[in-house]
Amino acid sequence: MKNLIKRYKFFIVTIVIVGIITIFNKELGLKSLGIAGFSLKEMALVIPPVFILLGLLDIWVPKETMIKFMGEGSGIKGVILSIIIGSAAAGPLYGAFPVAAVFMKKGVKFTNILIFIGAWSTTKIPMLLFEISALGKTFALTRLAIDIPGIIIIAYILAAFTSKDEIKKIYKNAEKL
Question: I need a surface site. Which of 18, 80, 85, 94 has the fewest CB within 10 A?
Fold first, then answer.
């Protein structure tokens, strides 16, 4: 029981604070509960499809294939594939992290995982299409031309500043999931 309380202490404290706020300001408390409910509903619609696709990726794509195309010796092909997969992804950024964990289990190079997460957050195809229609082709393509090299540079800098031991810990934690 103590472990359960310790594990969910932030959630419990948040519920207590929202309860106190609701007592003093019913409108604000109900509004915060509505926002929390909306977020939970959104996550409930996004997370199951992500996990289904992850299960399929885990079963259908052999580790050797992932290492060949996105592993340590993949070079530019791994970078390009990371950008394409991240750009083609759908859903909010929190959906990228379970995918990154599966990539780690499959032996994908750390830099390519960082590039994938950067592409997921910045270069999504639907967002590009929206920008072209709303802000113009010049703006959208200029932003993309700046973002892609930026993502790659940041990924390599992060990988350079992260120790080999820390990277091993990250991969080891991903294996536990």
Answer: 94
